[in-house]
Amino acid sequence: MIAPPDRTPLPRTFFDRPVLEVAPDLLGRVLVRTTPDGPIALRITEVEAYDGPNDPGSHAFRGRTARNAVMFGPPGHVYVYFTYGMWHCMNLVCGPEGRASAVLLRAGEVVEGADLARKRRVSARNHKELAKGPARLATALEVDRALDGTDACDSGETPLRMLTGSPVPSDQVRNGPRTGVAGEGGDGDLHPWRYWVAGDPTVSPYRAHVPRRRRS
Protein backbone atom coordinates (compact mmCIF):
# COMPACT_ATOMS: atom_id res chain seq x y z
CA MET A 1 0.00 0.00 0.00
CA ILE A 2 1.33 3.45 -0.96
CA ALA A 3 1.54 5.82 1.99
CA PRO A 4 -0.54 9.01 1.69
CA PRO A 5 1.41 12.24 1.08
CA ASP A 6 2.72 14.05 4.14
CA ARG A 7 0.55 17.10 4.86
CA THR A 8 3.20 18.80 7.01
CA PRO A 9 4.08 22.33 5.75
CA LEU A 10 7.57 22.65 4.29
CA PRO A 11 9.79 24.76 6.59
CA ARG A 12 11.52 27.89 5.37
CA THR A 13 14.87 26.12 5.73
CA PHE A 14 13.81 23.88 2.81
CA PHE A 15 13.91 26.92 0.51
CA ASP A 16 16.94 28.55 2.14
CA ARG A 17 19.31 26.48 0.00
CA PRO A 18 20.91 26.80 -3.46
CA VAL A 19 18.23 26.78 -6.15
CA LEU A 20 19.77 23.74 -7.90
CA GLU A 21 19.19 21.75 -4.71
CA VAL A 22 15.68 23.00 -4.12
CA ALA A 23 14.37 22.56 -7.68
CA PRO A 24 14.58 18.75 -8.02
CA ASP A 25 13.59 18.36 -4.37
CA LEU A 26 10.27 20.11 -5.09
CA LEU A 27 9.12 17.23 -7.30
CA GLY A 28 6.41 15.26 -5.52
CA ARG A 29 5.73 18.05 -3.03
CA VAL A 30 2.17 19.33 -2.71
CA LEU A 31 1.02 22.90 -3.24
CA VAL A 32 -2.35 23.82 -1.71
CA ARG A 33 -4.31 26.76 -3.08
CA THR A 34 -7.08 27.89 -0.75
CA THR A 35 -9.98 29.61 -2.50
CA PRO A 36 -13.39 30.81 -1.29
CA ASP A 37 -14.89 27.79 -3.09
CA GLY A 38 -12.54 25.29 -1.45
CA PRO A 39 -8.95 24.00 -1.69
CA ILE A 40 -7.09 22.80 -4.78
CA ALA A 41 -4.04 20.61 -4.16
CA LEU A 42 -1.32 20.03 -6.75
CA ARG A 43 1.47 17.43 -6.78
CA ILE A 44 4.43 19.09 -8.50
CA THR A 45 5.85 17.10 -11.45
CA GLU A 46 7.96 19.61 -13.39
CA VAL A 47 10.03 22.67 -12.45
CA GLU A 48 12.80 24.95 -13.73
CA ALA A 49 15.57 26.60 -11.69
CA TYR A 50 16.62 30.24 -12.22
CA ASP A 51 19.80 31.39 -10.51
CA GLY A 52 19.67 35.19 -10.38
CA PRO A 53 22.88 37.04 -11.29
CA ASN A 54 24.59 33.83 -12.46
CA ASP A 55 21.84 33.05 -14.95
CA PRO A 56 21.15 34.99 -18.18
CA GLY A 57 17.74 33.31 -18.34
CA SER A 58 16.65 34.74 -14.98
CA HIS A 59 14.44 37.81 -14.54
CA ALA A 60 16.95 38.96 -11.89
CA PHE A 61 20.05 38.67 -14.10
CA ARG A 62 20.29 42.45 -14.59
CA GLY A 63 19.32 43.41 -11.06
CA ARG A 64 16.30 44.39 -9.03
CA THR A 65 13.18 45.91 -10.58
CA ALA A 66 9.61 46.52 -9.44
CA ARG A 67 8.58 43.37 -11.30
CA ASN A 68 11.10 40.96 -9.74
CA ALA A 69 11.44 42.50 -6.25
CA VAL A 70 9.98 39.44 -4.49
CA MET A 71 12.84 37.31 -5.85
CA PHE A 72 15.21 39.29 -3.61
CA GLY A 73 13.10 38.75 -0.51
CA PRO A 74 12.99 35.91 2.03
CA PRO A 75 12.96 32.30 0.76
CA GLY A 76 9.67 30.43 0.60
CA HIS A 77 7.70 33.33 -0.85
CA VAL A 78 5.77 33.25 -4.12
CA TYR A 79 6.94 35.23 -7.15
CA VAL A 80 4.23 35.68 -9.79
CA TYR A 81 4.87 37.36 -13.13
CA PHE A 82 2.69 38.26 -16.11
CA THR A 83 3.90 37.25 -19.57
CA TYR A 84 2.89 37.72 -23.21
CA GLY A 85 0.19 40.10 -22.06
CA MET A 86 -2.14 37.26 -21.09
CA TRP A 87 -0.62 34.60 -18.78
CA HIS A 88 0.63 34.37 -15.21
CA CYS A 89 3.41 32.06 -14.03
CA MET A 90 4.28 31.06 -10.47
CA ASN A 91 7.70 30.67 -8.83
CA LEU A 92 9.03 29.89 -5.35
CA VAL A 93 11.90 32.02 -4.06
CA CYS A 94 15.01 30.16 -2.87
CA GLY A 95 18.35 30.83 -1.20
CA PRO A 96 19.31 33.57 1.25
CA GLU A 97 17.53 36.91 1.22
CA GLY A 98 19.03 39.17 -1.44
CA ARG A 99 20.21 36.29 -3.65
CA ALA A 100 17.26 36.43 -6.12
CA SER A 101 16.94 32.80 -7.20
CA ALA A 102 13.63 31.02 -7.77
CA VAL A 103 12.00 27.85 -9.08
CA LEU A 104 9.34 28.08 -11.77
CA LEU A 105 6.49 25.61 -11.26
CA ARG A 106 5.97 24.20 -14.76
CA ALA A 107 3.48 21.37 -14.26
CA GLY A 108 1.65 19.21 -11.76
CA GLU A 109 -1.13 16.75 -11.07
CA VAL A 110 -4.29 18.07 -9.42
CA VAL A 111 -4.88 15.66 -6.54
CA GLU A 112 -7.68 17.55 -4.80
CA GLY A 113 -10.29 20.02 -6.01
CA ALA A 114 -10.19 18.92 -9.65
CA ASP A 115 -13.75 20.14 -10.15
CA LEU A 116 -12.68 23.65 -9.13
CA ALA A 117 -9.62 23.52 -11.40
CA ARG A 118 -11.79 22.44 -14.36
CA LYS A 119 -13.96 25.54 -13.95
CA ARG A 120 -10.86 27.62 -14.62
CA ARG A 121 -9.37 25.31 -17.25
CA VAL A 122 -12.43 24.63 -19.41
CA SER A 123 -10.24 23.99 -22.47
CA ALA A 124 -8.41 21.07 -20.81
CA ARG A 125 -9.23 17.88 -22.71
CA ASN A 126 -8.59 15.61 -19.74
CA HIS A 127 -7.40 15.54 -16.13
CA LYS A 128 -3.68 15.38 -16.95
CA GLU A 129 -3.89 18.66 -18.92
CA LEU A 130 -5.32 20.74 -16.06
CA ALA A 131 -1.89 22.00 -14.96
CA LYS A 132 0.36 20.83 -17.81
CA GLY A 133 2.51 23.92 -18.38
CA PRO A 134 3.25 26.96 -16.18
CA ALA A 135 0.44 29.20 -17.47
CA ARG A 136 -2.09 26.36 -17.24
CA LEU A 137 -0.90 25.61 -13.71
CA ALA A 138 -1.40 29.21 -12.61
CA THR A 139 -4.79 29.37 -14.30
CA ALA A 140 -5.99 26.11 -12.70
CA LEU A 141 -5.00 27.42 -9.27
CA GLU A 142 -6.35 30.94 -9.90
CA VAL A 143 -2.93 32.50 -9.32
CA ASP A 144 -2.24 36.05 -10.49
CA ARG A 145 -0.14 39.06 -9.47
CA ALA A 146 -2.37 39.64 -6.45
CA LEU A 147 -0.61 36.63 -4.87
CA ASP A 148 2.89 37.93 -5.62
CA GLY A 149 4.83 37.89 -2.33
CA THR A 150 2.61 35.32 -0.57
CA ASP A 151 4.45 33.36 2.12
CA ALA A 152 4.07 29.68 1.10
CA CYS A 153 5.65 28.55 4.40
CA ASP A 154 2.99 30.18 6.55
CA SER A 155 1.04 27.46 8.37
CA GLY A 156 -1.89 29.78 9.07
CA GLU A 157 -4.73 30.94 6.83
CA THR A 158 -2.83 31.61 3.62
CA PRO A 159 -3.95 31.33 -0.02
CA LEU A 160 -0.87 29.27 -1.00
CA ARG A 161 0.94 26.71 1.12
CA MET A 162 3.67 24.16 0.34
CA LEU A 163 3.39 20.73 1.98
CA THR A 164 5.97 17.96 2.33
CA GLY A 165 4.07 15.60 0.03
CA SER A 166 5.93 12.51 -1.24
CA PRO A 167 9.44 13.38 -2.51
CA VAL A 168 10.39 11.69 -5.79
CA PRO A 169 13.35 9.23 -5.62
CA SER A 170 16.42 10.56 -7.44
CA ASP A 171 16.39 7.71 -9.98
CA GLN A 172 12.98 8.93 -11.17
CA VAL A 173 14.12 12.53 -11.72
CA ARG A 174 15.22 13.70 -15.18
CA ASN A 175 16.76 17.01 -16.21
CA GLY A 176 17.49 18.91 -19.40
CA PRO A 177 17.34 22.34 -21.07
CA ARG A 178 14.73 24.84 -19.96
CA THR A 179 11.72 25.40 -22.18
CA GLY A 180 11.47 28.50 -24.36
CA VAL A 181 14.55 30.25 -22.93
CA ALA A 182 16.59 32.27 -25.41
CA GLY A 183 20.36 32.52 -25.88
CA GLU A 184 22.87 31.16 -23.40
CA GLY A 185 20.18 30.64 -20.78
CA GLY A 186 18.53 28.05 -23.00
CA ASP A 187 21.73 26.08 -23.59
CA GLY A 188 21.13 22.62 -22.14
CA ASP A 189 24.85 21.98 -21.71
CA LEU A 190 25.30 25.12 -19.61
CA HIS A 191 21.93 25.21 -17.89
CA PRO A 192 20.22 21.79 -17.82
CA TRP A 193 17.96 23.20 -15.12
CA ARG A 194 14.56 21.82 -16.04
CA TYR A 195 13.62 18.88 -13.80
CA TRP A 196 10.70 16.50 -14.16
CA VAL A 197 9.29 13.18 -12.97
CA ALA A 198 10.19 10.49 -15.50
CA GLY A 199 7.18 9.13 -17.37
CA ASP A 200 4.62 11.34 -15.64
CA PRO A 201 1.78 12.23 -18.05
CA THR A 202 1.31 15.72 -16.61
CA VAL A 203 4.83 16.87 -17.62
CA SER A 204 4.77 19.43 -20.44
CA PRO A 205 6.60 18.82 -23.74
CA TYR A 206 9.96 20.51 -24.29
CA ARG A 207 9.96 23.41 -26.74
CA ALA A 208 13.02 25.40 -27.76
CA HIS A 209 12.85 29.19 -27.86
CA VAL A 210 11.25 30.65 -30.97
CA PRO A 211 11.80 34.41 -31.48
CA ARG A 212 8.56 36.36 -31.62
CA ARG A 213 7.99 38.17 -34.90
CA ARG A 214 7.15 41.82 -34.81
CA ARG A 215 3.80 42.72 -36.26
CA SER A 216 4.04 44.78 -39.41
From TrEMBL:
The keyword DNA repair applies. Residues 152-186 are annotated as: Disordered. Keywords: DNA damage, DNA repair, Glycosidase, Hydrolase. The keyword Transmembrane helix does not apply. CDD domains: AAG. Its EC number is 3.2.2.-. One of its GO terms (biological process) is base-excision repair. One of its GO terms (molecular function) is DNA binding. InterPro entries: Formyl_transferase-like_C_sf, MPG, MPG_sf. Pfam families: Pur_DNA_glyco. Belongs to the DNA glycosylase MPG family. This is Putative 3-methyladenine DNA glycosylase. It comes from Streptomyces echinatus.
